[in-house]
Design brief:
By secondary structure, the chain is mainly alpha-helical. It contains 5 helices and no strands. The protein has helices at residues 18-21, 47-69, 71-101, 106-130, 136-159. The radius of gyration is 27 Å and the shape is elongated. The chain starts with 17 loop residues before the first helix and ends in a 6-residue tail after the last helix. This is ATP synthase protein I.
Length: 165
């Protein structure tokens, strides 16, 4: 019995990989993607109201901090609220952008955003806690006030009776 071997066809350019010469895979259609909403502004329409609320909360926290323990506490409380405001706003903007570009990016970019912002928050808080700065307790209370306030207003925004359909 004679064995027959197939000899590969001679190519003009031997440096080109075989996968690059295949033409059958190039004609496959792209997967169907869901249509994007007509008006993508709904993803960030709550930010102006939440920013105004955060500014008011920052002023209240600074006032309470000043009345309780003076200028360092006022600065600490205001910094805590500002830290939360920047963190939450950054998350909102990254997720809204990812949703407009390609909804499949929401999870990976959201996770990356959370890892980055909580790493930075941990470094900042570790630095502040290890220092002897008199406003460090007020900074912690400012973070707590910012988280509770932002979360409550965002829940109210979503659940309010007059929201758009």
């Amino acid at each position: 019995m004679t064995e027959s071997r197939s000899v590969p066809a001679q190519r003009d350019d031997e440096d080109v990989p075989e996968w690059a010469l295949r033409k059958d895979e190039d004609d496959r259609p792209l997967p169907e993607l869901p249509p994007l909403p007509a008006d993508p502004r709904w993803r960030v329409e709550h930010l102006p109201f939440l920013s105004a609320f955060s500014f008011a909360l920052l002023m209240c926290a600074a006032s309470v901090g000043y009345l309780a323990s003076g200028a360092p506490a006022a600065l600490g409380a205001a910094a805590g609220v500002a830290l939360v405001t920047v963190s939450y706003t950054m998350s909102t903007l990254v997720l809204a952008w990812a949703d407009t570009v390609r909804p499949a990016l929401i999870m990976p970019l959201g996770m990356l955003t959370y890892v980055v912002k909580y790493s930075l928050l941990g470094v900042i808080l570790a630095f502040v806690v290890s220092s002897e700065w008199p406003g460090r307790a007020a900074l912690g209370w400012g973070v707590v006030a910012g988280v509770l306030g932002w979360t409550a207003v965002q829940i109210w925004w979503v659940a309010r009776p007059g929201r758009r359909k």
